[in-house]
Amino acid sequence: MKKTTMKPIKFTFILALLASFTFISCDNEPLTGTFTDESGVPADGTGTNGETTVALKPFFAKVEGNEFSEELLEAFILNDKLWVRGTDAQTNKVTIGFPVDIAEGTFEIDAATYTGVFADNVTPIFLARADSGLITIAAHDTTAKTISGSFSFIATPSGSTTPQYDITEGEFNVSY
Question: What distance, in Å, lies between the first and last C-alpha atoms of the chain?
Fold first, then answer.
């Protein structure tokens, strides 16, 4: 019986050769091109038609001038309203709501149709509803179920005049 020692050597050689290609092709080369996030919005740069594009963050706002950094972002339909809610690390919440079939445009916040709420996570937890403000819808695709826009409002806890929360520079770009 013939003993062949060439097969293990060939296998080892081929394996080493494949591994070396893997390491050679993993250089830290910069990526170029136009990239889109899950929402389909191109990242900052130049679009396919040469236009300048600025990507919206999925959710952003300032509460009393301080950046509200959401840890959890939700967009959902409840009672024929589309709700967009950001929750920060301390579980404070900024929520806006509007009709599910809303068109592009600017709308004044009211108590029923266009709403804004700030929930402050202090003991006891309370809701501050928007007394006044604006919601602007920049784009709404009901087929793809994507919506983007901006908002600002002043919110006061129910039955109180203080504290008031000034929610500014709000923007959203979500799928629902």
Answer: 69
